[in-house]
Amino acid sequence: MVVSLLLAIPAAAGLWLVTGGRALPLAAARLLSATAVGLTLVLSLAAAVSRQGIDRPWLPDLGVRFSFGVDGIAVPLVLLTAAIGALVVAHAWVEVPEGGTPATFLGCLLLVEAGALATFTARDAILFFVAFELVLVPMWVLISRYGDRHDDQARADAGHRFVLYTAFGSTLMLVGILALVTFTGTSDLRELAAGAGAALPPDRQLLVAALLVTGLAVKVPVFPVHTWLPPAHTIAPTAGSVLLAAVLLKMGTYGLVRLPVATVPDGFARLSPVLAVLGVVGIVWGALVCLVERDLKRLIAYSSVAHMGFVVLALAAGTETGLQAALFANIAHGVVSALLFVLVGGLKQRWGTVDLSVARPALRETSPRLGFVLVLGLAASLGLPGLAGFWGELLAVYAAWAPADNRPRALFVGCAVVAAVGAALAAAYALRVARRVWVGDVPEPEAGTTRDTRGVEAVVLTTLALGVVVLGVLPGPLLAVTADAVARIGGAR
Amino acid sequence: MTDPVPVGVDAVILAPALLPALAAVLVLVGDALLPGRRRWPPLLGIAVLLVAAGAALATGLRPASEPLRTLCLPAPDGACLWTAGPATGTLQAGILLAGAAALALLHDAGGGPRDTTVTTTLLLAAATGGAGVAASRDIGAWLVTLELATVPLVALVALRGTRTAAHGALTLLVTSVTSFALLVLGSALWLTATGDAAFAADTVSAAWGDPERRTVLVLAVTVLLCGLGFKLSLVPFHAWTPQAYSTADIGTAAALATMSKVSAAAGLLVVASALTGTGPDAGRVSVVVGIVAAASMLLGNVVALRQDDATRLLAWSTVAQAGWVVLPVAALSASGIRASAAYVLVYALATMVAFAAVARVGPGPLARFRGLLRRDRLTGGALALALLVLAGLPPGVIGLVAKVVALGPAVDAGLWPLVVVAVVAVVLGVAVYLRWFALLLGEPAEDVPSEGRGGGSRAVLVLGTALLVLLSALPALLLDLLS
């Protein structure tokens, strides 16, 4: 019951806002969405505590069941999604982009939230795929209708690139799922994880794992199929960028944990060296691009590529520590990137562009609160101890240093070393941004000052900043939530 | 099969085909008695088609183990010329409903044809043929009903009377005749290979065991597929499609795109059901079917990407979707046949809604649709949903489920090259339909003339959309009807 409502409320409110309620004035639409996301947040807490699910036949012909529920792996992501959903709707008090009616904009945000929640709670592989596809159209509308108004062509291009890449990836994943279902005779993720998949012969496991990993790699994204991400994040409105970085990318890594890692462990083990190397290339590539990128929003997008590289590396290591690291880094990146995108979106709104080459007065002087949050976000992003980013990256590098027995140790140790270098590069680009924006240039006489954050924006930023600090100081509770489920996946191997 | 009656004829079982045929006669007689009344024939036609669809659907609700049989021959083995299981009944219902919708579009207020008697009779005849071919199990009835499902539509294209329409009709006629010739040749080869005038799995199984007869059978299937390829608009037999669609009026184009395609798919499935008797070693047949499916999906989508005219885009979309209809058939399994039936029905429903929307906006360049969602919420919303179903993107869940169902048997049979092509086709298809979808969302263009069509297209739009929404919420409804 709780889970049904958790999915139904944002879905129903979102659907109504994009169809019947399209013409609703901003205030009413905002109030409705805020109520919906508020209820969803409460329900997500209730679902996390009660752990109830629903399970009924959906496509009896194919043996697909309408089965949703939460376990240790899903709980943090469900909570993250509900929280980020509430924050992006709250952000509508700060900025509602042009390009359509405000009700449609808010409706699309709610639909993305509903789709993500369905993905994280689905307990059937084919249902997971359907939920995975749910976010595509609303997100495409957010990017291509409500994105950056400067360049129509770039906006359409970014939207199309996002949809086509993701559709390609998810269809490949579907083929993998269908192969898995054909070989094992069940699409229930719990049965598959409990050994139905692991019992397959090695070549079939490899085939399924290759299809699933390739398909999901597009969504994560893993180098070299990350090229949809920078334009999508850069063009999307602030709320869209936040949802993309904090929620949508997590669907990819969550899928990797749920599908190949849990169901076909041996097949995944054979692919993991490739995945580890690609993850490390992503870390270094993302960091190097960040060192020269001039657009701050695009820079944050590329830093996402680097951070997801750590998650992939940790997953590839194949140990329980690795899984824990991946899940932790997932959540940490969700909070940190949300913080940075809200901040950069705010700066873009104030300045018009966020080109780093434009000389601007120091943020620390003109708007100290924004400046503080920027420094906090950058520090968390480079993995400073005591902040959210630290544990995920530390554990990821550690997991690569001591991979599972069936992984080539030398290769993984090499990857761990390169990943550590990548983390150092992250420090370099974070300091570069801090110097350009926080320290700033000598203000020219005519350059206006930057309005400091206040009101709802300050609340959103404070909440995210608190999340960054709490996760950094107290990683224990989150690691404990995922520990049981991770042990179960580890035990199935 | 111990039917004591020499040839049993059960009118109730035959209702899906008999009712439209009777209605066609009634329309002709009525017109002779009361000439000049234009309004009643289409209304009668629609009513009868709806009743017939209801009768067919009742067949669809019966368990698969007890198909309805009639027109059974006495000896030697008492094959029944009419065998209707659940899948047959549902396909018939689809054909008849598509016929009713096409009639409604054709006789929408304003731009209707002059002679409603003729158009109604022709559409009813085509519907009769479609309902017949779905249930036929012997070569003779199959050939005749398949032609009956096609030829009246050629006349409908020609009836428009313009020079381009005559040209389109001529192309269609030549295509149709070629297709018929190929079908006859294929049937003859089939008869040679299996020694059986019916499409039956056991005789195919026997023929498959003999290498020489197997070669003839593969040839027969290839030739039959070529013949059906014309009717289904499969590459390389698709060339007539864009021309015929764009020269015919919108109702006829809708009938060609939906009713005619479901009829042809039903005809294909009759043959494919027999071919499941070849057993697991059906590689060569799968290759033939697979090549055609792959070529249609790729070429149809790639060309559709470049179209700027709504009707032509729908024509090329038909070509691409026909590939998807044939894709699961390549697996030559019972689940593949069900998947193909499900896919063609979903395609026909979404395409009919799209045609109804085009009828309301008026055929022409895609630019006419700019901002439709804001100008006309009903038409815009319906078209948006139809396009998402065709693309296979939620909220058009039924389109996505149809693609999942269609890919399943191919993965099951291990047809990996075909599956890879299908993945590429999904991406291309998303690009095709999203291009149109993006226009609907855009800013409304100024001074776009509104066609102001009547109740027919509105009814098709509303009912079709309601059905799409219902099936998207409960996709199991359709799949249950087919098994």
Number of helices of chain B: 20
Count of beta strands of chain A? 2
Termini separation of chain B comes to 23 Å
Rg of chain A over CA atoms, rounded to whole Å, is 21 Å
Provide a count of the helices of chain A. 20
- Overall pLDDT metric of chain B: 87
**Topology of chain A as a string of helices (H) and strands (E):** HHEEHHHHHHHHHHHHHHHHHH
Helix content of chain B: over 70%
Q: Give the strand order of the largest sheet of chain B, numbering strands 1, 2, ... along the chain.
A: 1-2
Number of strands of chain B: 2
Strand order of the largest sheet of chain A: 1-2
Strand portion of chain B: under 5%
Instruction: Summarize model confidence as the mean pLDDT of chain A.
Output: 88
Biggest interface between chains: A-B, 37 and 32 residues
The global form of chain B is: globular
The largest pleated sheet of chain B is described as: 2 strands, antiparallel
Molecular shape of chain A? globular
Summarize the helix and strand pattern of chain B as letters.
HHEEHHHHHHHHHHHHHHHHHH
- Residue runs with pLDDT of under 50 for 5 or more positions of chain B: 1-5
User: By helix and strand content of chain A, what is the structural category?
Assistant: mainly alpha
N- to C-terminal distance of chain A: 33 Å
